[in-house]
Amino acid sequence: MDTNGQMRALLKALQDEKAAILKDSAPHRAKYEAARKKIQQLEAEAKAHAEAFHAVERPRMAELERQIGTIAKALGGKSLGGA
Amino acid sequence: MATFNKLNGFVEHLAEKVHNLGSDTITAALSNTAPGSESTPPTGATGTNVLANITQISYTNCSSRAFTTSSSAQSSGTYKLVLNDLTLTASSGSVGPFRYVYIYNDTATNDELIGYYDHGSSVTLADTETYTIDFNATNGIIQIA
């Protein structure tokens, strides 16, 4: 067999080996994708709840925490910033 | 402000969907044991980067350690997580001693760690005393570019 013929045979063998691996992994990949689909449905529900608690917390909490920290430190409280 | 020390496992966890920093509950854990002195240091392989590997103090007299998130967003390709300051208060007794303030994800399956601060010396809060974890509001706790 000439060099090109040998290379074509090797290419075919490698492609066959790759196809066999993908055939073996396919059922597991399909189950993974199905599981991910279920998670994505729950993620959508979680995201809606997250947006709801963000709407409650974010407008005011940063300023409240800043003031609490400032007063706590003014009263002699310790802080990481004082390290 | 003490320097934030990112734990190496965090970046792999971030890339593999362990964290949703925009909505998960980020929490502080307190320890008086140096990370490198833990029996399984959280500074090692990614799998070690979990709360169970931290020797925590008792929180019986400590107020809530959960942070609230100010913002989680990117600008010009750089992501920034900004947490609100948190003031811990000792009540009905002391808290500590502790020196290391860990930041971890309390929502994640294994309470995966993000990083930690070293206060520089051990701290004990007497009853009614406070300890404020004050973050840089401009730079946030972490940035990812």
Any overview of this molecule?
The complex is a heterodimer of chains A (83) and B (145). Chain A is an all-alpha fold and 83 residues long. Chain A has one helix at 3-74, and one strand spanning 78-79. Chain A starts with a helix and ends with a strand. By secondary structure, chain B is mainly β. Chain B has one helix at residues 9-15, and strands at residues 4-6, 26-31, 69-75, 78-83, 86-89, 95-105, 113-125, 130-133, 142-144. In chain B, strand 3 and strand 4 (78-83) form a beta hairpin. At the A-B interface, helix 1 and strand 1 of A face strand 3, strand 5, strand 7 and strand 8 of B.
Summarize it.
With about 80 residues, chain A is mostly helical. Chain A contains one helix and one strand, in the order αβ. Chain B is mainly beta and about 140 residues long.
Task: Give me the count of strands of chain B.
Answer: 9
What class do helices, strands and sheet pairing of chain A give? mainly alpha
Strand content bin of chain B: 35-45%
Identify the most extensive interface between protein chains. Answer: A-B, 21 and 28 residues
Alpha carbon gyration radius of chain A = 30 Å
Overall form of chain B: globular
Oligomerization state: heterodimer
Shape of chain A: elongated
| Average pLDDT of chain B | 96
Reading the helices and strands of chain A in chain order gives HE
Strand order of the largest sheet of chain B: 1-7-6-2
Biggest beta sheet attributes of chain B:
4 strands, antiparallel
